[in-house]
Amino acid sequence: MTLMKHEMKLGRTALIIWTLAIGLMLAVCVLIYPEMKSEMDSMTAMFSSMGAFTAAFGMDRINFGEFTGFYSVECGNIIGLGGAFFAALLGISALAKEEKDHTAEFLLTHPLKRRDVVTGKLCSILAQILLLNLMVFLLVVASVLAIGEKIDWTPLFLLHLSNAILQLETALICFGISAFLKRGSLGIGMGVAMIFYFLNLVANITDSLEFLKYFTPFSYTEGADILADNHLNAPFLTIGIICTLIGGIAAYVKYCRKDIA
Amino acid sequence: MEAIKTEGLTKCYGKNRGITNLNLSVNEGEFFGFIGPNGAGKSTTIRTLLGLINATEGTARVLGQTIGTGKPEILSRIGYMPSEAMFYNGMRVRDCLRFSADLRKKDCREEAERLCQRLELDTTRKVSELSLGNRKKVSIVCALQHKPDLYILDEPTSGLDPLIQKEFFSLLQERNKEGATVFFSSHVLSEVQNYCGRAAVIKEGRLIACDKIENLRNTSAKRVSLRFLPGSPEIPQPSAENLLQAGGFSPKDIADIRKTDDSLSFLYNGEVNTLLKYLASLSLADINIDEPDLEEVFLHYYEKGDDTQ
Fold it and tell me: N or C: which end of chain A has fewer CB within 10 A?
């Protein structure tokens, strides 16, 4: 508990900045919607005729004339990419930064079991991701109410929920990786997030590479699918949860035996 | 009872040597020094004892418990000071001290304040703004504030000014009198000589001596440094090669000969009178007979080590 509190305190500024950055960008997108609505019919036509670009973002299957359609594309990219980066950085640095900054010698010579250290860090990651998503969601709801748009809340909620799960998965995979690193490497975290994102884009564009969807959490945050099904894609989600667990378990197993640099 | 006992403790980093077959024993209540040059394996030993790294072979017991990674039952009774004192950026000194105490689930505010006063440490400063010496002080307070039974200190005095060093050692001596065991590593011989009852010497990962300080010092040689008068050709200056012959020393008495144009210095471990007779035959401008510095003590042990091989 002490450790978790400490971690939250250290991560406070970063959390606030990321929350504001993602939340405000989403809010702006929502707030400009009424302006764009009148032109949406022509925009839908335009967006759906950009070939590969259209497919990449799933815009061929989305009606921009509806708020949720518009929001799912904007949201998918802002919170998807922003959230994934935030989560990746959080996950990759939690354990490894102690060794990079030479604070591991301080922390790990206190009477803590290694697994308690991992648990404390993990809890702080989960809490920070939940906080970010909660705050962002509240900001979005507030802006939706502000523009007075009548919308279907279920897909909106599912979009945000799926992104929160994506962030958990990305964070835990990076967390698992970071247990093996000698020196913290933010680059690896960024790389993981980028690869996930682009795998989904490629899978969207190229039919023959659609199987790549199984390798990226962005598959279950795809706005077009969520709007069409009104639920999350179970197989993709299951794989995601399994990867999340593997990341977590790997962190425990490795870190409890690790030689601290 | 032993506070620290290692049996055949070995740590390899891949193919690199860490420590090899280390048998070390420190009794409870001792003030024990652990001497060795940089890279000899002092930190590796300490980090293994603390469970930061896993031993490749061998076992060790600290305060009666077998070592291992993350053992609260051992760590709660240890105060550790790392050689590099690093703390979390953005935290103030008092937050660090409080965090350390909280992790130990102890309220150490009173003791922390007392220590900070004695060490002249300003607790309102941010740790990231502190100098090395001041960060060391934070580290000292973290190691001492919970009054542990065993102090493990890795080169604790580097970066501290002499006054604070003195205060630090008097703190340690007080704790030692109260029954705590102090185990500290150093490459400064004088502080080990001044404060420790016993010391161990480590070289290239192996323990090469472990004895009372008096015994360690008695076996060590003297450094004899001679500076010759310029232009006194009537008495030839001995060269490094003919020094043995000129003085009639036996080869084992002389070691590490260093020669410049007008000076000569060597380690001497033989009869004092033989040396004096030889010196009387020289035309000298200056002479110095000193305790050897730490490297030379090592040198002495290294050669002893070579003899037995």
Answer: N
